[in-house]
Write a structure and sequence with these properties.
Elements: H1 17-27, E1 52-55, E2 61-63, E3 69-70, H2 76-93, E4 99-100, E5 111-115, E6 126-130, E7 135-139, H3 142-155, E8 170-172, E9 175-179, E10 187-191, H4 199-211, E11 216-223, E12 226-227, H5 236-239, H6 256-268, E13 272-279, H7 284-289, H8 318-333, E14 339-343, H9 352-368, E15 372-376, E16 389-392, H10 396-404, E17 408-411, H11 414-417, H12 439-443, E18 459-466, H13 474-481, H14 484-493, H15 501-509, H16 512-517
Bound molecules: ligand NGO.
Length: 531
């Protein structure tokens, strides 16, 4: 929230809705991504929609108990993608699906992974060619092959998602798919501070994100209500600062081993973890843990409410920068990705000049540990370098200011991408300060045009934050995230050309039976005709 008042704030409806509906009507019937032909109706609905889907004539491919996953010799990329694919398909098919290198063309109904393909596939794209005899999945990287595997999964019947053996047949219509993402950054943020989610819950969310080719998981690890990551040089951050959450529950935190295991789990699914320690505001949990971090030397009590904007690190104390340096150093050491998110939002209790001094210095600390600073849009008011990245959420002028300083921008417009907003007035969970965001609202926007005057090359891609003031467990997370997260993943991946709610709506509906198989607690929005 921008204001320091308690939630909720007056709903503000998206202004562009009327224009978007008009556009959708003109484009109704057009196929997103352009290149599909009429026969694609027989091809299962895919989310995100690939760049090109062409039906291939001839009988379908059938996965059988003889099917093998064939990889080229000495390719770690193909091996890892093959393993992931086998792990996905074995439980429900009950087939052995061995991963082998000795391809002899023949009657095996094999799935063949090949490393290569045209340059246009890029670092994450793939080609999928399905014919009666075999499936050939081609990609230039492990990530491309992994994403292609997710598409293959969606081409199989929804029963493939089950965790126990299901009846076949496991057929896939003949098809040629060429696909690569529009944006390099397709993110989801999970706030594990307001309410803590244990590693199993986070892994579950990662699995669901991977299904939609999301490649960034931003973990909001510290806020007023709780510090969630072990820092050896400041142990009370977790033992005391992590001991509660909104509503007064027991909270929790990740040990370094648990955090590293989560990073690895995400990495295996080609998702980069971006850790966030919010500062200089949103720091009550740290200030409560160490009296000496406060300007007056007095530790405030732990906080279990939901107001924002009341806490600040002490900008003039040298100890503050020792603290930040220790935290960033330890976090950087266990984070392979290039980014550390330093928050920077809603520092309402930090005078502006102090804020600027703080952010300038913290940026230096982050780069001294070999990382790039990411921060919410407010950091664009400091003397930031073009190497740092700003995350737009509420104020277009700040996004433009960031781009003006040469920074790249992650797009998280609260009215569209904040999936902690209620769907409508009846939603039992969530907030409404940015308005209600139904499934259509969350789908109808474009990261490249949402803020006027932002050059497309400064836009890294969309990210959907899920703030957890009202969310106590993974069921709540799933209810708010799905179906909206799937739409934002598509906005990040698929070409914008031809995109429309009318075309997306039935495709989204087909995800319902998959989520049923996976026991996802998704919101069965009346906007969608679920099968
Ligand atoms: C704001 C605020 C968060 C809240 C969230 C709730 C930002 C960047 N800061 O977004 O502290 O949790 O709204 O929607």
């Amino acid at each position: 929230m921008k204001s320091s008042a308690a939630h909720p704030r007056l709903p503000r409806r998206g202004v562009a809705a009327v224009a978007v509906v008009a556009l959708a009507v003109t484009l109704a019937g057009a196929v997103p991504g352009g290149a599909a032909d009429a026969a694609t109706t027989a091809i299962p609905a895919l989310v995100p929609q690939p760049v090109s889907v062409k039906a291939a004539p001839g009988p379908p491919f059938t996965l059988t108990k003889a099917t093998r996953i064939v990889v080229p010799r000495h390719s770690a990329a193909a091996q890892s993608a093959a393993k992931a694919l086998a792990a996905l398909l074995r439980p429900s098919t009950g087939y052995p699906l061995p991963v082998v290198t000795d391809h002899k063309p023949g009657r095996h109904h094999d799935v063949r992974l090949e490393v290569g393909g045209p340059r246009e596939l890029g670092a994450e794209g793939y080609r999928l060619d399905v014919a009666a005899g075999d499936v050939v999945l081609t990609g230039r990287t492990a990530a491309g092959l992994f994403h292609g595997g997710q598409t293959l999964r969606q081409l199989l019947p929804p029963r493939v998602e089950a965790s126990t053996v299901q009846p076949g047949p496991w057929t896939i219509p003949g098809v040629h798919i060429t696909d690569h993402p529009r944006f390099a950054w397709r993110g989801a943020m999970l706030d594990v501070s307001r309410h803590f989610f244990d590693p199993g819950e986070v892994r579950r969310y990662i699995d669901l994100l991977a299904m939609y080719k999301v490649n960034v998981l931003h973990l909001h690890l510290a806020d007023d209500q709780g510090w969630r990551i072990q820092i050896d040089s400041w142990p009370r951050l977790t033992t005391y600062g992590g001991s509660t959450e909104v509503g007064g529950g027991p909270g929790g935190y990740y040990t370094k081993e648990q955090y590293k295991a989560l990073v690895k789990y995400a990495q295996d699914r080609h998702i980069m973890v971006v850790p966030e320690i919010d500062m200089p505001g949103h720091t009550n949990a740290a200030l409560a843990s160490y009296a000496e971090l406060n300007c007056d030397g007095v530790a405030p009590p732990l906080y279990t409410g939901t107001s924002v904007g009341f806490s600040s690190l002490c900008i003039d104390k040298e100890l503050t920068y020792t603290f930040v340096d220790d935290v960033v150093r330890e976090l950087a050491a266990m984070t392979p990705g290039p980014y550390i998110h330093l928050g920077g939002d809603e520092a309402h209790s930090t005078p502006h000049e102090d804020y600027v001094r703080f952010v300038d210095r913290v940026e230096g600390i982050v780069s001294s540990h070999g990382k790039r600073m990411l921060g919410w849009e407010e950091i664009s008011g400091a003397n930031v370098s073009p190497r740092s990245v700003a995350q737009f959420w509420d104020t277009p002028a700040e996004a433009r200011q960031a781009a003006g300083k040469g920074m790249q921008v992650v797009m998280s417009p609260a009215q569209k991408a904040y999936i902690d907003m209620k769907y409508d007035e009846n939603t039992p969970l969530g907030l409404s300060w940015a308005g209600y965001t139904n499934v259509q609202d969350a789908y109808e926007w474009d990261p490249a045009t949402f803020v006027s005057g932002l050059p497309e090359e400064s836009i890294l891609g969309p990210e959907a934050p899920l703030w957890s003031e009202t969310l106590e467990n993974i069921d709540h997370v799933e209810f708010m995230a799905f179906p909206r997260m799937a739409g934002i993943a598509e906005i990040g991946w698929s070409p914008a050309e031809g995109r429309s709610w009318q075309e997306y709506r039935p495709r989204l509906a087909q995800q319902g039976p998959r989520w049923d198989q996976l026991s996802v607690n998704y919101y069965r929005s009346p906007e969608v005709a679920w099968p």
